[in-house]
């Protein structure tokens, strides 16, 4: 596949909690493609998105959506039915990766280290703790640390959790309960079939929640991370293996917790993000830049991979996948 010029529809926005991040990602992608001479149509997703995509007649859709329904297989299925070529992962991968419990079921049997835990009814939290404190509660299928709560021994939400305490139990009928892993926040990007680098995320206060991720100055990014080489290599091996096991396409990002008091035994994969952010604060562009891949080249690489994959699928009579 030549480098164009292409007509790219950048799909962004939507109505998830991550809408502002998606708009920032999408605008960055659109400007980068335009700077390289490509034609870009910006589409802020609404309920008429199928009609708008059909009318655009783009060569490829750059999926810059984050969260539901742009990252959970819904939009992927729609685009598959329409016969559209799009970036990042396909339907089945998206369905599994957005669901933290399904991700564990797919990866843990293959030796990927992930925290234990189980799904609980939010209503049950007001009676008893599902795990010994400290533990983490998070939505089963949201990204960007939306709705994450760390329940500590000090009883910061009450003991048991108070019904009127502000937390994800007020917004989600079910939550994933996991043991809290002390230590450090690490993340590794995968582009195509290569793990890039390891970044350590050091929030200035609290933990790496939604605000810390997307507010300039709230989190220090140490890239490459100042960690032992065996931990760095393990992150890259696990990230790439998870990317391949799940069938991820284009770019993905694997998030880890590392208990540095336990060495290699303290490294746990938390989740795989199939549509990582492309904002000015995002981690995939940052890691690519450290390796000499500028932002526009990164975007073109992701688009080109989707076009090449679609061309190969067309030659073999297969769908997007």
TrEMBL record:
Location(s), subcellular: Cytoplasm
Reaction catalyzed: 2 D-alanine + ATP = D-alanyl-D-alanine + ADP + phosphate + H(+)
Entry's EC annotation: 6.3.2.4
One Pfam family linked to the record: Dala_Dala_lig_N
Cofactors required: Mn(2+); Mg(2+)
Keyword Nucleotide-binding on entry: yes
Pathways per UniProt: Cell wall biogenesis; peptidoglycan biosynthesis
Residues of the ATP-grasp domain: 104-304
Domain of life: Bacteria
An MF annotation (GO) of this entry: ligase activity
Chief location: cytoplasm
Keyword annotations from UniProtKB, A to Z: ATP-binding, Cell shape, Cell wall biogenesis/degradation, Cytoplasm, Ligase, Nucleotide-binding, Peptidoglycan synthesis
Family classification: Belongs to the D-alanine--D-alanine ligase family.
PANTHER family per the UniProt record, alphabetical: D-ALANINE--D-ALANINE LIGASE, D-ALANINE--D-ALANINE LIGASE B
Protein function: Cell wall formation.
UniProt xrefs under NCBIfam families: D_ala_D_alaTIGR, PRK01372.1
Record-given protein name: D-alanine--D-alanine ligase
């Amino acid at each position: 596949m030549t480098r164009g010029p292409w007509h790219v529809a950048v799909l962004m926005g939507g109505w998830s909690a991550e809408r502002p991040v998606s708009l920032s990602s999408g605008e960055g992608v659109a400007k980068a493609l335009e700077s390289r001479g490509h034609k870009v149509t910006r589409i802020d997703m609404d309920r008429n998105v199928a009609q708008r995509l059909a009318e655009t007649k783009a060569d490829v859709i750059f999926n810059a959506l984050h969260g539901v329904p742009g990252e959970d297989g819904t939009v992927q299925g729609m685009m598959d039915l329409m016969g559209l070529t799009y970036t990042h992962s396909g339907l089945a991968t998206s369905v599994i990766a957005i669901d933290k419990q399904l991700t564990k079921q797919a990866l843990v049997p293959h030796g990927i280290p992930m925290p234990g835990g189980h799904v609980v009814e939010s209503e049950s939290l007001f009676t008893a703790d599902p795990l010994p404190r400290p533990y983490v509660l998070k939505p089963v299928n949201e990204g960007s640390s939306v709705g994450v709560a760390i329940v500590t021994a000090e009883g910061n939400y009450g003991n048991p959790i108070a019904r009127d305490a502000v937390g994800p139990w007020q917004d989600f009928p079910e939550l994933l309960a996991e043991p809290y892993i002390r230590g450090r926040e690490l993340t590794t990007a995968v582009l195509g079939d290569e793990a890039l680098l390891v970044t350590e995320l050091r929030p200035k206060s609290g933990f790496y929640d939604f605000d810390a991720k997307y507010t300039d100055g709230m989190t220090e990014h140490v890239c490459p991370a100042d960690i032992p080489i065996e931990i760095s290599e393990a992150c890259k091996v696990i990230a790439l293996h998870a990317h391949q096991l799940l069938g991820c396409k284009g770019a993905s990002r694997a998030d880890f917790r590392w208990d540095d008091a336990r060495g290699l035994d303290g490294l746990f994969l938390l989740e795989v993000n199939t549509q990582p952010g492309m904002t000015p604060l995002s981690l995939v562009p940052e890691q690519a830049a450290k390796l000499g891949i500028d932002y526009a080249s990164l975007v073109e690489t992701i688009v080109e991979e989707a076009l090449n994959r679609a061309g190969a699928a067309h030659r073999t009579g297969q769908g997007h996948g």
